[in-house]
Amino acid sequence: MTGPGGGGPGWGWGPDYWARQVCGTSVLLLFNERFSLLCCFPGIKFSIRPQQPQHDSHLRISTEKVTRDSPSGSPRGLQLQAPDQPRPHPKAAGSPLRLRQRRRRLLIKKMPAAGTNRGNNSSETFIQPRPRTMDSRWVSLHQTQQERKRVMREACAKYRASSSRRAVTPRHVSRIFVEDRHRVLYCEVPKAGCSNWKRVLMVLAGLASSTADIQHNTVHYGSALKRLDTFDRQGIVHRLSTYTKMLFVREPFERLVSAFRDKFEHPNSYYHPVFGKAILARYRANASREALRTGSGVQFPEFVQYLLDVHRPVGMDIHWDHVSRLCSPCLIDYDFVGKFESMEDDANFFLRLIHAPGNLTFPRFKDRHSEEARTTSRITHQYFAQLSSLQRQRTYDFYYMDYLMFNYSKPFSDLY
């Protein structure tokens, strides 16, 4: 049986594996022999022992019987080093009993609630940044990551309970790009900085010397970057379990408006004839022959009608699909969750963590239609003001899981 995305025979494997994780999934606080504090980044290290191939077209990654594993032997991961401080005399550190009690309190405080532990081939990766002082900004960015992952886990545990028992298939990893030199997996979320992120990956891979040298068509239509589903079963399992996995998200309404402006308000040889013509034919009364011929001139309310129609005349598109469908965050335990709204800080923090070259920073330039203002919350409200309150509510319901998983506030006060 052939798996989706070019899998091929032999994708099946048994659920017999084991994993351990030290000190919970949120934050690991360890003390070395001199009682210096080491604050380690989150993630899960899975050591997988596959059985003989079964007649199954999936990558079976069972989520039951998950135990914890220490990070020793991990090739890479996220670790924050506390600032250098004078080392206290051993007696000043307190008795072993007090130390054990403190560790226990930390474990209880940071341990996830029952049912939130999702086995998904995630890696307990520990990357030590370049020597630097762990200033308040560094700590704040680290704590933000912990909070985002906590919110995401809780949403998955509450609303996607069955996901923990599903198998990861090539389809689930089809949007994930691979950078082997720095051992990074990036899940592409369109309209959330994906073009520039792929530029960064190409520089990390040594395919270009600067992000400014890479053209748009090279980014999106070239084959320089590999997708995870192009690897065989062992290659996928290995990378999911040992690479640093990250994704960047964006406020759902804002992302939707950005996609509409890009695809329907500018000439486009694909979206106008494929989506535009179908939308105009179905949702515009008395559409002109010219409009039906070209598919140009789709209005935002017509586009939203298409989006909310359970019998869409054309299928869903990645530019406005849910992040929960594109990246399967309830199956794949991402080590880093960035946001478009704090892109510069989050992106450069991540590059620091993976030991990217010091001169590589996330590019600020706008990939397309550079003369046009970026889609902001103000512009988003202008577009949604064209909709009825019922349409706004239904659109919010459509993206509810993305709002919940990534902790975005309701964009309008009349939403419930």
TrEMBL record:
GO terms for molecular function: dermatan 4-sulfotransferase activity. GO terms for cellular component: Golgi membrane. Residues 55-68 have a biased composition (Basic and acidic residues). Keywords: Carbohydrate metabolism, Glycoprotein, Golgi apparatus, Membrane, Signal-anchor, Transferase, Transmembrane, Transmembrane helix. Pfam families: Sulfotransfer_2. It is a single-pass type II membrane protein. InterPro entries: Carb_sulfotrans_8-10, Sulfotransferase. The keyword Signal does not apply. GO terms for biological process: carbohydrate biosynthetic process; hormone biosynthetic process; proteoglycan biosynthetic process; sulfur compound metabolic process. Residues 50-100 are annotated as: Disordered. It is found in: Golgi apparatus membrane. It is an enzyme of class 2 (transferase). Its EC number is 2.8.2.-. PANTHER family: CARBOHYDRATE SULFOTRANSFERASE, CARBOHYDRATE SULFOTRANSFERASE 8. Belongs to the sulfotransferase 2 family. This is Carbohydrate sulfotransferase.
